Amino acid sequence: MGVPADPVKASVRRADLVSMWWIWVAACLVVAVVGVGRARRRGRRQRALLIACHDAGLKFSVLDPFDDTSWLPFPLFSATRSPEVRNVVWDGRDDTAVRVFDLAVDEVVTDEDGISQRRRLSCAAVPLPFACPRLSIAARGAPDPAGLPTAGDEIRLELDAFNQRFVVRAADPRAAVAFCDQRMMRALMALPLDVTVHVNEHVMFLAAPTLEAGETLVLLEAARGLARSVPSVVASLYPPRPARGPHEDRWLQGAWSPAPTANEPPPAST
Fold first, then answer.
1. Residue 259 CB contacts under 8 Å (≥ 6 apart), including other chains
2. How many Å apart are CA 192 and CA 182, to the nearest integer?
3. How far is the C-alpha of 192 from the C-alpha of 172, rounded, in Å?
4. Chunked in runs of 10, what are the mean pLDDT values of the chain (270 residues)?
């Protein structure tokens, strides 16, 4: 005959199971409440952004109308990060394609409620007329909201006030010196928001924590101001890469060069 079960131990086990079940239910309720609150906050922000854009005469789209955003040359836009671009703002009177948008990527971070979520940013993209090596400009002592790797060693520039506020890192020091001329440094010093600037190839990318509607419009105007301050001399140092035609294979060399590639035919004799 088997030993009869201890009714006290059985009762304790049942109580433990009931307690664990209630803890699980409570955790699910907390997550659900936080998720609903977060969705409502995003909805209110989206409506406020739509109204602000209408009042300012700007274009607004919940979905990304630009076909090159998913190809921006930064790790955040790799397919493995599942980038999601939404709430795009731009000036329809401006043909430079400068725009601001919300970006969400796969990277576990913890928000103010202690809940893990995807990394979320307010970003701006500024097309550039050249193919610049990687460089970054970040507020000294502040973390990069985008979490992108640093571009290289720190480069000290000629303006002490700028060096005290920003850290400039570049894969090629010549790129940092040429890009951050006096006009660009003054424009960066006048930024009203704490943003990190990354430059790579043909794009200047600005990243900040998720901004409110009014701040998003400020970011757009700041990005347009930086676009107007880009030194033209950089294009002579780093010409734009042709995306089509006989020089297309230069994309595969890892760095632009005026020399022909192996697949290009020799010049015709005259």
1. none
2. 18
3. 28
4. 56 65 57 45 86 96 92 89 94 93 83 69 95 93 89 91 95 94 95 92 95 95 96 91 54 47 50
The predicted pLDDT at position 34 comes to 43
By DSSP bridging, strand 166-170 and strand 99-110 are unpaired
Examine residue 47 and state whether it is found in any structural domain, yes or no.
no
Q: Which two tokens stand for residue 209?
A: 């924590």
Q: Which of 46, 89, 49 is nearest to 69 (CA)?
A: 89
How many whole angstroms from its chain centre is CA 56? 24
Q: CB of 196 within 8 A of CB of 206?
A: yes
**Entry pTM:** 0.74
Residue the block writes with tokens 């005259």: 270
Residue 221 makes CB contacts below 8 A (sequence gap 6+) with: none
Quote the pLDDT of residue 160.
94
Residue at 256 is within a domain: no
Instruction: Give the number of domains in the chain.
Output: 1
Residues paired with residue 168 on neighbouring β-strands, in sequence order: 137
Find the domain containing 192 and state its range.
Answer: 58-237
Whole-number CA gyration radius for the chain: 25
Query: What pLDDT is recorded for position 18?
Result: 63
Rounded to 5°, angle at Cα 186 from 185 and 188: 65
Residue 112 lies in a domain: yes
Q: Is residue 168 part of a domain?
A: yes
Angle, in degrees to the nearest 10, between helices 7-56 and 213-228 = 50
d(CA 233, CA 237): 7
Q: How many Å apart are CA 227 and CA 125, to the nearest integer?
A: 10
Burial class (CB in 10 A: 0-12, 13-18, 19+), 2: exposed
The Cα-based distances of 225 to 9, 53, 126, 212, 216 in angstroms read 72, 18, 10, 20, 14
